[in-house]
Every structure is written in structure tokens, then in C-alpha cells.
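Homework help thread (please don't just give me the answer)

Our assignment gives two proteins as sequence + C-alpha cell strings and asks us to describe the second one. The first is just a warm-up. Here they are:
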Amino acid sequence: MAKSGPLKVLHLINTLSAGGAELHLLTLCRHQKRLGLEVTVACLREQVRDSRSLRPDFEQAGIRVIDLRARSRYNWQFLARTPLLLRRERFDLLHTHLPRADLAGLAAKLIAPEITWVCSVHGMYKSWSGNRILFLFSRVWGRADAMIAVSHAVKDWLEQERCLPPEKVAVIRYGIEPAHFSPAKARQRKRNGSAVIGSLGRLEYRKGHHILIEAMPLILRQEPRARLLIAGHDPEGYGRTLKDVIRQLGLREQVALAGFQRDVPGFLKSIDVFAFASLSEGFGQVLIEAMAAGRPVVATRIPPLTEIVRDGETGLLADMNDPHAFAQGIIRLLRNPEKAEQLGKAGMRRVQRFFSAERMSRETFRLYKRVLDQ
């Protein structure tokens, strides 16, 4: 990679709404700046309902943000704007995140083949609303100079089900700044002595929140003072369905939908056990956040969550879509505080060792250099 001056990278993502992929990008960009890269972020639109835009966070970190103003799903002008932007500002590399942004990467590559394009695949999209055209994305991603799979599970899916060449797919797992979630820095909320189970993720079916609600009657038989807090924004109104389940099970006093959380470390510090019953994930960033905060975790026994949690060592795993299994794991932790503390500390050490933002950013930079030198 022979060039003078800093490497100029344009990241393109669907929105700047505070979600897993967007928060990942914010952390990545902050650390790329520390490595000396000149980083710009472009988004198709800033925000989705019931969340907040991360634009102020990017700008506070000194990262320029460009809004391509594709407010509607029927607005495709960004496909032409992206290659024009790349050429006008002479970026060295385009890095796209999420499917609509990946389409712009393909458009840029077709219009300007000299552009170096890396795309991050953040999920397996098995339950994606656009899965009827998923076969097209195999061709889209295949035109990239390199793909980043955010877990080994995503890499296996790309190779085995999407038939993409293994040599094009690099696994670079999400990383966070563990100190940001350190129990010493998290805000402690006052509790009334009840055992608090927490979960965090946008309100949608595949996040499995209903499984935790269905587990609560089983938990309450042995831990009658237990409470469940489910936090997350509600972009599609799925919260109404969860409220129906809460009402049908007579759990209005024991289960609450806590809404979007601006203070995630504070939320994590306020709970005793973190439960994550997701049915499908590309990685599961919130799980490493909870572990970094020292919370003992119970998570679904599915890839890629099995890449994060070592069952019985850094947390507990429960079978997918099984309220009874989640209830057993949660009760075990609530009734054995020493074991819960042991798992929480082991989880913290695992995140510090394997899931740091510094590791993620350096691996990404090495990939950039490799594709630019090809």
C-alpha cells in the first residue's frame, strides 16, 4: 500500500440509529482515528422510530458524517451518489455495513472498478424481511474485494449457504471498550431487595423476549420477588405483542418493558442476571457488554453466542426457544450468588482478552492493507 498521507476510508451504513451494527461502527471509527486513518461516515438516513441518532457521538469523536437523505425504502438515489462521493473526495477505500449499503458498494464497484470495497456482513439474515431476494446478495457480496464476517457462524453461513469463496471472507468479531462497562464506572440504581433479571435488545420476535416472559412464572415459584426488565427500542410496534403476553400470564407487576436505554452501563449495573434468549444473531454485542459489566449471563445455545459464552465457565447456555431451560439457568444464578459472581468475573476476563475494540480495529486495518496491496 504505497501512498502518502493517512488512509482515507468512507464507511457507509443504513442508519445512525443506536443499534448493534451502528454502535459497532462508532467504536470502530473511534479506534481507526487513533490508528491514524482519516474516517468519514455516510448514512442513508439518520434515525429510526423509538431510538436516537448517533450522529452527535460520531461528531464529538471528530468523525465527519454525511447524510445521503434516502429517507424512504423507495429512494435509491444513493446508488448514484456513493460513487460520485468516492471519486470527488478521493477515498482510498469504501467499507459498507448492512444490505442496502452493500448495494451502494456494488454500484460503486460497477461504475468505478478501481475503488477498493470491503463489506461487513453483520448477520445471517435467515429471518430477514428481504430474504426472498437473498440469493441476489450472494452476488453482491461476491463482487467486494473482501468480506468481514462478524463471527465464525456468519462466515460458515456465507460459505456453506451463500456459496461465497472462503478466501474472501475474514472473521473479525465485534469489540468494545471494556472499561466503559466496568462495574466501577457503572451507575448503581437503588433496588427494593428484589432479584432483577434484565435483557436488552430491540423489540422484535427474533430477540426472544417472549421466551423470558414465559419463563417468569417458573422463576417466580422459587424466587417470588424476582422481576424482569426488558429494555430496547420498539421500531415496529412489537411491544404491543409482548404486553399481551405479560397480561395473559398475569405478570404486570413482575415484568416491565423499560424502553430505549441511553445509559446501557447503568442499566446493566442495576440487574442481577442478564438473560439473552435471542433466536438468531450475527454476533450479539449486548452479550459482551453485559459480560464486561460483570453480569452473570444466561444466553441461547446457538452460534455465534456459543463463540462468546463458555457454558459453565463464563456464563450459562440454555436451549433455544425453551422457557423452562432459561428459568433453570436464571434460578441457578439467583440462588447461588457465589457462582454468579464467579461467572461474572470470568466473563469480564474473557471480554478483555478476546473482544476488545483495539483488537477489532487492528485486525480491520490489517485487512484494509492486504486488499489495497492486492
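The one we have to describe:
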Amino acid sequence: MFRAVWFMLLLGILAITAMWFADNPGQVSVTWHGYVIETSAAVSVGAIATIAVLSALIYRLWVFIRGVPAGISWFRGEGRRRRGYLALSRGMVAVAAGDPGEARRQAGWANNLLEEPSLTMLLSAQSAQLAGDEDSAHKFFTKMLENPDTEFLGLRGLLNQATKNGDNYQALKWVRRAYQLKPESDWVARTMFDLAARAGLWSEASSALATAARKKQVNSAEAKHSRAVLYHQMSLEAEASCDNAKALKLSKKAVKEELEFVPAQLHLAHLLMSSGKQNKAFITLETAWAATPHPGIAHAYLSFTEANDAMARMKAAHKLAALNPKHLATKLMLANCALNAGLGGDARKILEEVSALDEAVTSNYCQLMAKVEEAEHSDIIAAREWLVRAANADADPSWVCQDCGNAADTWSSLCGACRSFDKFQWRRPSRVPGLSAPIDDDPKAPRLVSPGTRLAQEIDANGIEH
């Protein structure tokens, strides 16, 4: 619509101009080298306009002819770039698909077509890694450090290689440099903390954790737990250096950060007892039991009482149990103390109270019931049945690694199986059922015997040892 209006307006202006020149023809006379040219003003204006249009067309034609070589060169270069980026994309797809030959071939094409190593070097390094050529990949990653645009990618590749090879020294070297480049990166901060913690560099790990917490890269609950673990480890290190005052101070910080962190509570009670602060040691254990009952707490508490007979230990157990009377760990502690004191009836009563709970029927529970049957009624058959159930019952809680499922009797900051930091949790180990073997009709074929069946066979043959 606007174009139509503009065209009509322009056409009107031209018509008005033509009419004005028709009404006012005028006279133009030009003398040049003896020649005299006389014409009207309208014809003169038309001639001048025609010459201007022809001059403009000739100029545009000259500019076009002059720019043809550059245009051809640009077109060819643009085609090379398009093919280069296509090869780069295909190479990335080949890496994702696990095709090292295609990845390396496309990386070569991309490098020749683009002539920009900063874009193609990462693909070359990844294709070399995919082909198992770690030396070539290392060279590519190292070369990437020379360009500020690819330095961080090169550092990440070198860091992954060092971590894969178990070279914590080199991994720390690369992650420190990456941390200087990208301190706001969540991945870099976590890797920095994890590697420093695995290396036992507690102060450096604490500094990395503080920075990550300040930048909201970890939530407050995770930060508090990690600080508790670090303070606990630093306390153990100070104690090993015979600096008990520093160890005690750090242990108190660990407990303050997380009251339910049982290893820190046990270590604090130990340090307090070693310093002659017996009452504070008992208060620490009682507070820990009220928050999170744990067999280790009960064992430390009863050992600190220095009771000479089973009845005195039973009395101390009842004092501790009053702080968390309904917990399963409390019931099992009381039942075990009652058995050691010769109170089989009391132990049976306590165990029967928790028998309705599915989580209570563990291997330890079944063994306690077997002891009760043997101690109270000398019922060997009933005791044998409980031992068979113990062999097939769920395992009791232990320190289980969240990453690999490794179960340990004592807590440690590093998993001995997968070397993960701070992954142990107090829970029951997972039981993974096995696959059923095909039925073999051959009676002479060897049979697999379950642990419970084997134990029952041994008990039937030999009886129960007294």
C-alpha cells in the first residue's frame, strides 16, 4: 500500500514538472568551439538526466567487474568453511557414536578446510582418545593450552587423563590452573575440592569448599556436612601430630557443624576422655545417642564406664537407653547386655517387642535369639533354626559406600574400593538377587548350595558348640 502511494505521488510530481516545462519552454544556447547549440530548457534537463543515469550505470558496471575476483575468492572460501564445519559436525557425531576411524578422518578434513586449529584440535584429541592413542591426545590437549580460547578445554582434557591414570599430583596441578581461569565453574570447584580432599590437603579442600559455598555452588546442608568431615580429618591429623589441644578444638567444630556425624562424636568423646574430662565425654556420647543411636556409641559408652561386672554394664546401658528408648539400636543393645548378664528372660522379652518389625529381623537379631534359646531353655533345635535364619537374613547396618556399595565395619573418609571421598553412610548393604541357573536333569551334575543350607547341613552333622 505504501509503495503504491509513493509511486502515484512520484508520478504526479513528474507530470506536474512536465506540464510546467510545457507552459514555460524557455531557451538554452550553448557555444563551444564555434558551434552553437540552441534548444529548449526541457530538452536540456532531459539530456542532463540521461547523461547522469548513463554515468551511474557505467560506474556500477565498473565496480562490479573490479569486484569479480574478490567475489569469486569469497565464494570459494565460504564453500570451504561450510564443508569444514560440516566435517567438524560429522566428526563430533562420530565421536559420540564411538567410531574412531570416521572421527579421525573428519577431523583431518575439518583441519584442512577450516585452517583454524582452535576449532579442530578438540575433535582431533577426542578422536585420538577414542582410538586409544592417549599420547596423541595428550599432545593435542597440551597444544590447546597455548590458545586462550581453547586453554580451558585443554586443561579439562589433561585433567581427565590424569584422573583416569590415577595421577593425583598432575590432576591437582591442572585443576588449580583451571580454577584460576574459571573460578565460577561449578564443575571446577567440585573437582578442586574432591581432589584436594583425596590427597589429604584438608586446608586447601576447606578453602575450595568455602569459595563454593559463598558462590552458592553447593547447598548449605552439603556444605555443613563437608565442613564437619574436614574438621574431623584435621582433628585426626592434629592428634597424630600429638597436638591434642588443636585436635580437641577441631573435633568440637566438627560436632558443631553436624551433630549426627557419629565418627566426629566418637572422636570428640575419646579426646575428652584422654584429657581427663570424663563427665564431658559421657555427655557427648549421651547427646550423640539421643540424636543418632549407633552401636559404636554404645560400645564407647559402656567401655568408658569401666564397670567390672555385667550387671553394672546393664545399669549403664539402661541409662543410655533412656535417652532414645524406642530405637531399634537401643533394643538390641539392651538385649545383648541382658544376655551377658545372664538375664535370658529379659533379653527374650526385649527381642520379642521388636520382632514385629521387618527391619529388626537381621543376622544379628537372629543370632541373639539363638543365644536366648540356648541360654534360657537349652533348646538346641530352636537355636539351630535361628542360626539358619541368621545365615539367610538381611545384613545388619554397616558403613556402605554410596558409589560402589562397598561395606566396611569402620568409617573412613575414603572408600578403599573406589577411592571416593566421604561416601560412607550407615545403612544396610543392598542385597542383589542372583539369576536362576537352568535346571539340569543329570543327577551327577554339581549343585550350588546356599550359605544357609550349607550351615544347616553342618549343624545337623556336628551340632552346636557350647
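TA reply:
I won't write it for you, but here's a hint about the kind of observation we're looking for: The chain has 20 helices and five strands.
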